[in-house]
Amino acid sequence: MTGTVIFRCNVSASVGVGHLMRCREMARYLGGIGWRSVLLGPPDNLRQSVDERLFAAWHPVEVRGPSDEDAARVLTLCEAHGTHYAVMDDYRVDPGYQEILRAAGVRWLQQFDTSRPWMFQPDLLVNASPYERREQYLPWLTEPERTRTLFGPAYAVLRPAFSGIAARADGRPVRRVLVAFGGGDDRGAIDQALRVLAGRLGPEVTLVIVSGAGNPRCEQIADVVSALPDGEAEFHVNPPDMAGLMRGCDLALIGGGTMSYEAAICGLPMVFVGLAPNQERSCRGWQNLTGAPFVGLVGTVPDEWLYETVSNLVEDDDRRRAMAVKGRSLVDGEGTRRLVEALLERERETT
Predict the structure, then answer these.
(1) pLDDT tens readout for residues 148-194
(2) Do 162 and 259 meet the contact criterion of CB atoms below 8 Å apart?
(3) Comparing C-alpha atoms, which of 8, 22, 112 is closest to residue 58?
(4) Alpha carbon distance 122, 112 (integer Å)
(5) Any idea which UniProt keywords this protein has (predicted)?
(6) pLDDT value at position 350?
(7) I need a surface site. Which of 21, 91, 97, 182 has the fewest CB within 10 A?
């Protein structure tokens, strides 16, 4: 039996585009098993040609409004498409919103972060952070017996190019350092990296700067890179082969978002600068499980501390090798399949 899944997605320069990426990849998997996907939320200017195949319909939301109004939008689409399945990749789905979905009989998967420890009652509560544990959230589950928690990197949603990617050689000399903080506003993290690291890690080391076109600092970054001596840095905006670019790097300075899972599956050692408080637990989780240093939140990291952390790793082949092995052991590229199968579990049991 096939059907439709409604996706509610929040995306902007401030929250980044990781939410939309996850929705796209789940929709891609659903399409492969004969299901349709409908997207609610993102503006039209984020549409790509591939979205014509991934989503049967795309409904922008210019002004979200109160939670009850937004929940009504989701229920209207559920009714129109004859479905009770939904994916809520929007961290604003508060307890009142959830009450409305539950009362309407919606079976939904809810992506969340740790910045709002409110009560949860979805069928599936998802957080791919390596820090989170179910026991931490039992006080926040309205009905623990009804809510399945899918926590940890095994549930990370990756772009297809990263699934099954060939592992890079562990411990190779550092020649290219990836500096990337998602597709939205990097909040000054790239500027600090250029100021502190460019030209200081050795004559053969290049900073590979990557940003999304939605980053309002792109023009400023381009100006800084163009003024540097040849070989110190290069700048890529929305590179077409991010997987290949990442695999060609030897060390990564990144935030605690989606890119951390992509770096892990590539076997790329990482240093973390969190872009916002809601990334801190994820960064600490990676640090605890792989040894990847978390130097702090953007705007709070002293220049010399950042330099010392990165430069020490550049010189420590054994430490980078160990980090790469541990990272790959946590991410296998099967997260999308696991999430979709969990969402449709009830359907599979009745067919």
Answers:
(1) 999 999 999 998 899 878 877 888 999 999 999 988 899 999 999 99
(2) no
(3) 8
(4) 11
(5) Cell projection, Cilium, Flagellum
(6) 38
(7) 91
At 349 the pLDDT is 42
The whole-number pLDDT of residue 347 equals 44
Domains and CATH numbers, the chain: 4-157+333-349 (3.40.50.11190), 161-330 (3.40.50.2000)
Q: For position 12, what pLDDT does the model report? A: 79
State the average pLDDT over residues 277-293.
95
